[in-house]
Specification:
Structural class: alpha/beta
Order of helices and strands: EEEHHHEH
Radius of gyration: 13 Å
Organism: Amycolatopsis acididurans
Protein name: DUF488 family protein
Largest sheet: 4 strands, parallel
Shape: globular
Strand content: 5-15%
Number of strands: 4
Number of domains: 1
């Protein structure tokens, strides 16, 4: 599968190379006006559950366990359907997953981008 999936902060200046811009946070980013977001879609349902998000608290020491739990949540039928939608977008254009998280390398956007690129569940 030829996919072009990236991830970055929604607060960063949009770039032409972003292609389709999709917010993958459950909660709208603080201080971001909807007009300034330059979004094509907001898929809050693909984000981690509120319980998982609250447990994680963006603590890098918990990232491995967060990643494992989120990959399990991605097996939910509704999330798998949304993932299929994102994969189909990425087959025809560049796709950028957006998050408000400061540490994007330890975010659901990073996990989701990797999972979508591989097209299957990876655990570790």
């Amino acid at each position: 599968m030829d996919t072009h999936i990236a991830y970055r902060r929604i607060y960063d200046q949009p770039a032409r190379s972003d292609g389709m811009r999709v917010l993958v946070d459950r909660v709208w980013p603080r201080g971001m006006r909807k007009d300034d977001a330059h979004l094509d879609e907001w898929l809050r349902e693909i984000a981690p559950s509120t319980e998982l998000r609250q447990w994680y608290k963006h603590d890098p020491d918990r990232f491995a366990e967060f990643r494992r739990r989120y990959l399990i949540e991605l097996q939910d039928p509704q999330r798998r359907e949304l993932a299929q939608h994102l994969r189909s977008l990425a087959r025809t254009q560049h796709l950028t997953l957006l998050t408000a998280t400061r540490d994007v390398e330890h975010s659901q956007a990073a996990v989701l981008a990797e999972w979508l690129s591989h097209g299957r569940k990876r655990s570790s």
